Amino acid sequence: MASIGSDNDKGATGAAKFVTSTVGNTIGGLGKTVGGVVGAGGRGLGQTITGATGNAGKPIGDAIESLGNGVENGARNVSKGVEDAGKWK
Question: Model pTM?
């Protein structure tokens, strides 16, 4: 019967990979969630400012939207790196 995984995934190494994978996926998922909430909040606030002030506030509204998008994208990239590290990539 063939084993699932390599000989490197047995014993202490296998246990360490399991723990780091679980922690990495948990932290990565949390980071994506927080980034998504901040991004959505930034877009919503920016659109509210633009809608309430018209052309006068559009540059500020657009800047806040861009900031929210940047935070969301940054959190997504960092979270992907954490998940990859948890998978020992």
Answer: 0.74
Q: Give the residue-averaged pLDDT of 6-26.
A: 77
Residue 2 DSSP one-character state = P
Residue 34 pLDDT more than 90? yes
Answer for the pair 25, 83: CB distance below 8 angstroms, yes or no: yes
Cα separation, 67 vs 49, in Å, equals 14
DSSP letter for 3, please.
P
**R_g over Cα of the chain:** 20
pLDDT of residue 2: 44
d(Cα 22, Cα 82) in Å, to the nearest integer? 11
Long-range Cβ contacts of 62-66 (<8 Å, 24+ apart): none
